[in-house]
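Q: What structure does this chain adopt?
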Amino acid sequence: MQILPVSEIDVDPSKVQEVEQIMKSTFRLITFSRKHLADDLLNTYLASTTNLKELLSIKNAQMEAQNEQEAQDYVVTLNDTLLFVADEIKHHVDFRTELQLFQLFRSISPESHAIHPNRYRDKLVQIGSYVCPDPAKIPSLVAELFQNMNAIKNPIIKAIYFHHELIRIHPFIDGNGRTTRVAKNWILMYNLYPPIFIRDENEKSRYIETLSNSFALLEKNPAIWNDELSVFFNQEIERLRFNSLLVYEAVKELGEARN
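A:
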C-alpha cells in the first residue's frame, strides 16, 4: 500500500466553501443578531451539537453492533469516548498524534485493546476483496499519514482524508471503523464543525461500497486520485453539510420565535 499523497486530493472547493459558509452564518447569528440573546443562541448551538453527538452514538452503534444488546453497550462506550474528546477540545487539544489514536482505540474498543494492548495488529486482515497492508508496514504507514495530515490546512479535508486512509491501513485487529470515525469527528468538532455520522442503512451500504471501490482503484493505480475517491469525499462533505444546516436552523428558529 502507498499512502495517497496530499497533492493528489481533488475536491470541488465550492462544496467545502458551502459548509464553511453555513457555519459562519451560524456564528454570525450567535454573535451579531439583534433579535436574540447571545447566551441563548450559544446555548442553542451547544444543545444542537450535543444532540448530534447523541445521534452519532446511535448511528455508530448501528454500524458496529450485531444485536440490540451490543448496540446498547456500545452506545455507553462511545458516549464515554465522546466525553473524553469533548474534554480534550475544551482544553484546546486537537487530534494530531499516534498517542491520541491509541487513546481512542483503548476507549472505544476496550475488548480489542485487551487482546492487543497498545499495539497494532500482528495478522493479515481482509475487507471484502481488499487485503490490508502487512502488519510490519503499519507503523511507517500510520506515521506517514499523520505527517501528511500536517500538510492539509482545511480541517474538513483533513478529517475526511484521515478517515479514508486509516481505514485503508486498518491498523488494529478490530475496532478500526469506530476509532477512525471518532478521530475524524474530533478534528471536525475541534474546528467548530458538527460531527459526521451515517444516517440510515442505505447510506451505510453506499459508504461501504464507495470505500471498497476506491480501495480497489488505488490498488490498480497507487497514489492516484480516482472517481470513487471523489464520491467518498463528496458523500462525507454532504453529511457534514446536512448536519451544519441542522445546527444553523436550530439557532435561526430561536431568533425567529422572538420576532
